[in-house]
Amino acid sequence: YDENNQVVPTSIIPLIDGGTEGFKGNARVIMHGYTSCIECTLDLFPPQVNFPQCTIANNPRLPEHCVEWVTSILWPKEKPFGPDVNIDGDSIEHIQWIVEHATKRANEHNITGINFRFTQGVVKRVIPAVASTNAVIASICATEVFKLATSSVLLMNNYTMFNDIEGIYMLTYPPEKREDCPICSNVPVRVQINETAKFQELVDQLIEKYQLIAPLICTQIDGKSKTLYMTSTKQMLELTKPHLRMTLQELGLANGIELLVGDPARASSMRVIISLTSSMETITAK
Amino acid sequence: MSNISGPDTKQIQYDRQLRLWGDHGQKALEAGRVCLIGANALSTEILKALVLPGLGSFTIIDHQLVTLEDCGSNFFVHPSMIDQPRARVTCELLKQLNPDVHGTYVDKPSIDDLLKQNTFDFAQFNVVITANLPLNTLVTLSTHLWSLKIPLLVARAYGFIGTIRLQVVEHYIIEAHPDDTIPDLRLDRPLKSFVNHCNSVDFNSLTREQHLHMPSLIILYKTLQQWQKQTNRIDIPHTRKERDEFKQILEQLSHHSVYDVSDSNKSLENFDEAKRVIPSRLVNTTIPSAINNLFQDRSCLELSNQSHMFWFIINAMKLFTQNEGQGLLPVRGEVPDMITNTSSYVKLVEIYQEQAKKDCETIHNYLIDLLKQHNRFSTMSSNEAATLHELVHTYCKNATFLNVMRTASIKNEDDSLKKLIEQIPLESSSDESESEVSWYIGLRLCDAFYEKFNRYPGEFPLYIGLRLCDAFYEKFNRYPGEFPLSTNDETNSDQRQLEIDFNDLKQIGRQLLNSDRQQSSIRENILQELCRYGASELHSISAFIGGCCAQEAIKLITHQYTPVDNVLVYNGIRQSANVFKL
């Protein structure tokens, strides 16, 4: 982004992404800043299927529950192949051991359907795959790259879903860009924090929320840039470590101030605006 | 299939796809024989996606030699192989992908001569696939295959456009594996054993533990019983008001004397689940119209000694629905997971599976009778007879989704195309965006044909455009825009040639479709774009069509999943795919 908050076209590196699962697949062309990106649509991904603990422990009904019981409860208890040996989904002996014990549990509850292939599928969370779907999605991605390289034809706009379970079905549409997307938009993120909090708290909050590894935080106070936190060199670490114990006020961070946060986990820096709340507000918000 | 013992090498190698079509599907695939006509980029892509999953055998027919052009478009072919027969080279390379697959090639005579001589046995194949075959040859071949009743897949990659056309006299879809199914629980026509089981449950005398773990299915049935008593009905609630009444009763049942004192905050998971699944449980159980069509189908009514086993089983199922089934298909036997304790769930599963087994047995007996009646039973091998029971079981489990697919023959395609075009209105201004016209076309088609087209129909005109290109080929022995590359000085003449081709194409269009209203449907910019392609073969487009076509062939061989019905047009520019029936 340039000073007028416009995307700089030459800075864009197009990203073409595709994935398949059995007879379904998808592909997308991402031009950060113009099209929606993966982060924009992150909440469209379905949650992972996990079985509740009480089902696994007390009320198994499906063969999957029996297998999960063995992998999550019995194995850690008995450690059949050694004290530090974890389950290896590719090891035939491991899977056979699991099959044996899952079957025992299944028989106790009159549940059927456990065999080697099934068990390995549950343990490794196997996703079925065929050559044809992979060829199709790969070809879509390749075609898009070809278009980019030759400028012969318009690019796809911008997300495609493919399914050949019943006939052949394909839908291409552009998902909406999130106005405040932390990755592809240049809109600053707003973070709320108690006015009496220590800087350490703010840093922890940022690390957790955005999965940062070693953030570099700086800001502008009275026209002068100030490095609030930096861990890349021992020198800077020593220098900025005391900041963590200080309160936001002591550091000169007023309400509405903008920080710049860089991190190895992110390609570009994030703009973060601090919103200070009084103690009463924070408690009721919880 | 092994129980505890580890998998054999084939099961490991094909593990990921076995989870999609099972061992029996894999067996069918490994017995499958495919004939591929044409050894170009498209055909190698098709075969690749058939050879890798373990197809039994393939035969490539192509009399041409490898040229430099081929090396540019087909990554299976290397400049060192120029001037060797294309069929042989691609056959050898494809076999390397999977040593279990048996492959042969025919490099002389040409397919045209082969058809003229009529000595080649096409009946040995399960499916025949053509890749960019010229129209004349295609029509001869398709007519021949139509009489042999061998399915034909016509694949085409043309610049950024690709098409697949299926021609099949009769294809049976046995295991459709639809994406979303409503479980077959029949609350509106409950199983006797289910009713008995529910009647043994007295909501008023439940312990807290029992109430907490009551399966949602039983909760719903109890609620239904009460609602039916209240309203003096025997069916299920339909209107908004009725459903609200139902939910009220459900709410009442969720209260239990033991709870309300200390558990006011407790959320009853099983009752929440019951509420949540109402839309899929309170449904009318009926025979789908597609199945009724099968029952009324001529092939079903005119059962004979020569009929395919499919029709015998359909007849057996029909007899079942008319008698023991009381107007319904055999019970599927699957019960979705629900929040309850093990023994309650297992009991429910037992009830439905017991009934499914009984129904399957009944249909099996009907089948044996029918086979004996038509003198088929005695001529069956002992192997076939032994697997009959398993076959009936498969049909019963998938009863709701059985279907037959029939397409028109390619010979009559021009008539069908003309009929479709006639539906296009006269006033479509050339300024109108493509989607407008297409939507209009789509609506007209829906009106005229009573079919559920409901697709984004922009690609339909492309198919017509391709047919014009074929007509161009007949006349000039090359495709429009396909002429030898020229040097820089001659680019001007290339431009002119392109324009000449374009005008010729338009001429042909006017000749072929002679009514005025038909002309406007052939969008000029589409013809122009097709000229630009000059019948070039883009490898990535070939890969797309290749993958799709191979999967269609696998569907035809395994009788699992539903094939495309029956024309697919792929637009690589907009990345869209549209299917329509010709």
From TrEMBL, chain A:
InterPro entries: E2-binding (IPR014929), ThiF/MoeB/HesA (IPR045886), ThiF_NAD_FAD-bd (IPR000594), Ub_act_enz_dom_a_sf (IPR023318), Ubiquitin-activating_enz (IPR035985). One of its GO terms (cellular component) is cytoplasm. GO terms for biological process: protein neddylation. Belongs to the ubiquitin-activating E1 family. UBA3 subfamily. Residues 191-277 form the E2 binding domain. The keyword Glycosyltransferase does not apply. It catalyses: ATP + [NEDD8 protein] + [E1 NEDD8-activating enzyme]-L-cysteine = AMP + diphosphate + [E1 NEDD8-activating enzyme]-S-[NEDD8 protein]-yl-L-cysteine. Pathway: Protein modification; protein neddylation. This is NEDD8-activating enzyme E1 catalytic subunit. Catalytic subunit of the dimeric E1 enzyme, which activates NEDD8. It is an enzyme of class 6 (ligase). Its EC number is 6.2.1.64. GO terms for molecular function: ATP binding; NEDD8 activating enzyme activity.
UniProtKB/TrEMBL annotation, chain B:
It comes from the Eukaryota. SUPFAM superfamilies: Activating enzymes of the ubiquitin-like proteins. It holds the Pfam family ThiF. InterPro entries: APP-BP1, ThiF/MoeB/HesA, ThiF_NAD_FAD-bd, Ubiquitin-activating_enz. GO terms for biological process: protein neddylation. Pathway: Protein modification; protein neddylation. The keyword Magnesium does not apply. Keywords: Ubl conjugation pathway. Gene3D superfamilies: NAD(P)-binding Rossmann-like Domain. One of its GO terms (cellular component) is cytoplasm. One of its GO terms (molecular function) is NEDD8 activating enzyme activity. Residues 14-578 form the THIF-type NAD/FAD binding fold domain. PANTHER family: NEDD8-ACTIVATING ENZYME E1 REGULATORY SUBUNIT, UBIQUITIN-ACTIVATING ENZYME E1. Belongs to the ubiquitin-activating E1 family. ULA1 subfamily. This is NEDD8-activating enzyme E1 regulatory subunit. It comes from Rotaria socialis. The lineage of its organism: Eukaryota, Metazoa, Spiralia, Gnathifera, Rotifera.
